[in-house]
Specification:
Elements: E1 2-6, H1 12-25, H2 36-44, E2 51-57, E3 62-74, E4 78-88, H3 97-111, E5 117-118, H4 126-134, H5 150-157
Parallel strand pairs: 4-5
Antiparallel strand pairs: 1-2, 2-3, 3-4
Protein name: L-amino acid N-acyltransferase YncA
Keywords: Acyltransferase, Transferase
Pfam families: Acetyltransf_1 (PF00583)
């Protein structure tokens, strides 16, 4: 029913659509400021910083899901694969595309000799939490997420 393959530059407009669909689901559509041009540079430029897989519905050849990942380094564990987003379009959820994407991403973790895979899930996203529980994932509620936006950093550092 689905084919999973490595993402290509020509997939990026659809990838961004799915990212925006996820942001709407997570009640934060205004937070998406990324563009296809930035994704092209960051994923296919001289020094790519992320990779992705796509799930293609075989009957329509439409991209119905994505898994976006990158690498991080843990001083305690070493090289880790970080799953930034896994998104399956609403009409295809529950049909197996998410499992195929997650499984392929786990395989990528092993192929690249990572010591493990990490990701986040919103505490109210019960379908996703239940999905990850099926894998026996450790859902650690102890850590607090922190971030600063570039404009905030500029202000703090007195830069323009």
């Amino acid at each position: 029913m689905y084919t999973i393959r490595k993402g290509e530059k020509t997939d990026l407009p659809r990838v961004l659509e799915l990212v925006k669909e996820l942001a709407l689901y997570e009640k934060a559509p205004e937070q998406v400021t990324n563009t296809v041009a930035l994704m092209e540079k960051d994923g296919f430029g001289e020094h790519p910083i992320f990779g992705f897989f796509v799930a293609i519905k075989e009957s329509t050849q439409e991209i119905v899901g994505i898994s976006i990942y990158y690498y991080r380094y843990s001083t305690w564990k070493g090289r880790r694969l970080y799953l930034e987003d896994i998104v399956v379009t609403e009409s295809e959820r529950g049909n197996g595309a998410g499992k195929l994407l997650f499984d392929r991403t786990m395989l990528k973790c092993l192929e690249d000799s990572c010591t493990g895979m990490m990701w986040q899930v919103l505490d109210w996203n019960e379908p996703a939490i239940n999905f990850y529980k099926k894998y026996g994932a450790d859902l650690d509620g102890e850590w607090i997420n922190c971030n600063l936006q570039a404009d905030e950093i500029k202000g703090l550092l007195g830069k323009k």
